[in-house]
Amino acid sequence: MKENRTAPPLERPDLTLPCVILDRPQMAENIGSVARVMANFGLRDLRIVDPRDGWPQERAWAMSSGAHWPLDNATIYETVAEAIADLNAVYATTARPRETQLPVRTPRQCADDSYANAQQGLKTGLLFGAERAGLETSDIALCHSIVTIPVDPAFHSLNLSQAVNIVLYEWRLKVMDTPKEAFTKNMDQPAALEKLHGLYGHLEDELEKAGFFFPPEKKESMQRNLRVALNRAQLTEQEVRTWRGVVTALVKGRGRSLLNQTPQ
Amino acid sequence: MKENRTAPPLERPDLTLPCVILDRPQMAENIGSVARVMANFGLRDLRIVDPRDGWPQERAWAMSSGAHWPLDNATIYETVAEAIADLNAVYATTARPRETQLPVRTPRQCADDSYANAQQGLKTGLLFGAERAGLETSDIALCHSIVTIPVDPAFHSLNLSQAVNIVLYEWRLKVMDTPKEAFTKNMDQPAALEKLHGLYGHLEDELEKAGFFFPPEKKESMQRNLRVALNRAQLTEQEVRTWRGVVTALVKGRGRSLLNQTPQ
Question: How far apart are CA B171 and CA A234, in angstroms?
Fold first, then answer.
């Protein structure tokens, strides 16, 4: 397939295509296989967080079987938080749902959701962990849902590119099965994660000052639990502003008069 | 996954499991990847027709990530006709349906059919062609149906083990017969509304004292907007307690020392 080196024209320019995010991938071969799978199923935006062996890597291109465009245009990040900052929703694929209170979706349900987002111009991220280590719990807590591929529990070690393959296959089925007529919801769009994380940081700073995180060794899990609950709310940008106002009001408002109240 | 070397017990001894047949595979690595995928999705009978580099091949075991049993028990044949002689139905997967008069099925339809066979004690074969050459027309003519994976026509070169992965994923979905719940079973129930309204009242009282609801005529709609966002989060009872603690901490905690902090 040496002839396939540049991206083919978009089949559905009306859709905001999901991106694939690989967190700390170890093998360049797997990154190349992921690029090939992305080309098979019509995706092109590849984001790589802290690749073990650096970037670019020749072996990725060699394994892509000519699907060079996701690799040529791949963007590199230091953290998952940075890689997902501009996205509206992120699905973390993991074989073992952790002890989080995030909803667990099948690959098919993930495709349904991603497609609904894509029709509304919202960008979805499909996040996959490192080959052996998987995803950090703290990174999963940044996501909206967990996607679990229904492997045999007796042998759940799925190759990274095979996991991507299945999630993207369901995406393509959804694209093919759905007529183009979009019905747009009246609901406002969820805020970009960067705004949401601003709210989290604000809240957590104030709670820290208030001595809420006690005992200190529980701070991380307490923070995660707060974030997970707020993630589920899918706050809009306006709501994020409102909730920042709530935090400010609770912290500073006591004793103030209405006249001194600064507008939110 | 070094510990996984022998087949786990059958999950569904009532089903006659399909077998996977690889026709003239070239790369031992791909055979190993196929074994891993078979283990992921609960299949174990692997048949190999005329492997290019002979058999056995160490690289297949190395790539199987511990899924040794399909390789250890693989059977080798000279022709497709011999490999399928004992089967009741065979599905040939190919990206490009040829000029045959065979019905073309999706992977999902193939799983439906294979499952119906499996319940009746009939053995289905899932046949995949060589990496580049694909299947011979004369071998396809021995089959009952063609399975086509819905790849982007602009880049239809699917890796052999990825093709197997998708067909077997659909098989497993069928076995699991997945109307999956959106939330995990072990996820806690959303809190009773009375608890939730206690949180709302607590928050709103404090915001009232802080002068947050300004101008006063907007209080009702501001309250409603806060409640709507929190409703979407579907907080559990534990989370309601946590968030009441958050409100208390923000209001009262400022300036307190950790020692004085009341437990939440």
Answer: 34
- From chain A, pick out residues whose CB is under 8 angstroms from the CB of B224: none
Instruction: Report helix, strand or coil for B191.
Output: coil
Query: Does residue B187 lie in a domain region?
Result: no
- For residues B220 and B208, is the Cβ–Cβ distance under 8 A? no
The answer to whether B258 contacts A211, with C-beta atoms less than 8 Å apart, is yes
Residue B158 is assigned to a structural domain of this protein:
yes
What are residue B32's DSSP bridge partners? none
Dihedral angle over CA of A172, A173, A179, A180, nearest 10? -10
Residue A147 maps to which CATH number?
3.40.1280.10
Domain span at residue B79 reads 19-182
Q: Token pair for residue A135?
A: 């995803």
Contacting residues of A for B241, CB less than 8 Å apart: none
Question: Closest approach of chain A CAs to the CA of B144, in angstroms?
Answer: 24
Give the pair of three-digit tokens for residue A241: 């502003």
A264 contacts B212? CB cut-off 8 A: yes
Note whether B182 contacts A103, CB cutoff 8 Å: yes
Q: Under an 8 A CB cutoff, do A40 and B162 touch?
A: yes
Residues A4, B150: contact at Cβ < 8 Å? no
Complex confidence, ipTM? 0.74
In angstroms, the CA B154 to CA B160 distance is 18
Q: Tell me the average pLDDT of chain A.
A: 87
List the single residue in A161, A165, A230 with the smallest CB-CB distance to B233.
A230
- Say what percent of chain A tops pLDDT 90: 56
3-state secondary structure of B239: helix
Q: What is the DSSP letter of A121?
A: T
Chain A from 9 to 68: CB within 8 A of any B CB: 9, 11, 33, 36-37, 39-42, 65-67
Establish if A4 touches chain B: CB-CB under 8 angstroms: yes
Please tell me the distance in Å from B4's CA to the nearest CA on chain A: 8
User: Both tokens of residue B210?
Assistant: 């802080």
Query: Both B148 and B75 in a single domain?
Result: yes
Same domain for B87 and B168: yes
Task: Give the nearest partner residue to B39 out of A152, A253, A260, using CB atoms.
Answer: A152
Non-local CB neighbours of A189 within 8 Å, separated by 6+ positions? A88, A120, A121, A122, A236, A237
Residue position matching structure tokens 């952790």: A98
Closest chain A CA to residue B63 = A159
Domain boundary among A156, A182, A208: A182
Residue-wise pLDDT tens digits, B99-144 = 566 888 999 999 999 999 998 889 999 999 988 888 988 888 888 8
pLDDT at A117 over 70: yes
pTM over 0.90: no
